[in-house]
Amino acid sequence: MKKNTTYAADVLVTALAPAIWGTTYFVTTEFLPQGYPFHVAMLRALPAGVLLLLLVRKLPEGIWWPRSFILGALNFSFFWAMLFVSAYRLPGGVAATVGAIQPLIVIGLSRLFLTAPVRPLAIAAGLLGIVGVALLVLAPGAAALDAVGVAAGLAGAVSMAFGTVLTRKWRPPVSNLTFTAWQLTAGGILLLPVAYFLEPALPAPTTANILGMAYLGLIGAALTYFLWFRGLARIEPSAAASLGFLSPVVATLLGWLALGQSLTPAQIVGFVAVLFSIWLSQRSQLPR
């Protein structure tokens, strides 16, 4: 019973990360300059990573240099670049749901890299989650899907799936805060040349821009990824990945509450299906 209680607490703490990530789409479209996805991704990662490095005062050693950059690319550079591209080209709720295939990818990668068992209940939960987000996206009145935005969202989901599994496989002998600092900094460094060569210079930031970037960097990056990596060290990657369904739930709720977007009966059914799929996935991983 004690193990189950500890496991449930770890799941709840980890769930805070994707729930907060669900606000990314709202902040991106309402507070940030439009048309600068790579600059925004870089400014979200690098300052937060450097700040954490100043706090932990520890750099990678040996094999952890290349591993930090690989994980930084998977979890931040490529993933965030694709996320912001999809956020700019799709409505918030749609952008947040196109990555619904990620938990199923994580199940396959966990089997490949971690020799984790493939649980039928976890697969069923992943499929149910896809149905739920499909109801959110394809409900009557939903905006038409942009092909580039959808492709970017799916590419980001694949990247995050690899990052999730490899973060569990590669666990350095340092604190989760230090591990987070390494990855954030590496991801930001990788995005610097991309932003410089592929996009024009950012315009002078407004107060809203500064507040939006501060939120995404401190709360949406430093805090949430610390919680996420902490969770990956304690629960199975497939169980953690299913928590990602909370992002589209939060994003769509924000679209309804803050932007006046419609919420149809089909979308409400989608909410229920998504939440049940998360519960089912956690049930499949619960320690016996």
TrEMBL record:
Which InterPro entries does this entry report, sorted A to Z?
AA-Vitamin_Transporters, EamA_dom, EmrE-like
| Iron is among the record's keywords | no
Cellular location of this protein? Membrane
Chief location of this protein within or outside the cell: membrane
What membrane topology does this protein have? Multi-pass membrane protein
Gene3D superfamilies for the chain: 1.10.3730.20
A Pfam family annotated for this chain is: EamA
Keywords annotated in UniProt: Membrane, Transmembrane, Transmembrane helix
Residues covered by the EamA domain: 12-137, 149-280
Q: Could you list the residue ranges that cross the membrane?
A: 7-26, 38-56, 68-88, 94-114, 121-141, 147-167, 179-198, 210-228, 240-259, 265-281
Q: Which family does it belong to?
A: Belongs to the EamA transporter family.
Tell me the protein's name: ABC transporter permease
Q: What is the scientific name of the source organism?
A: Agrobacterium arsenijevicii
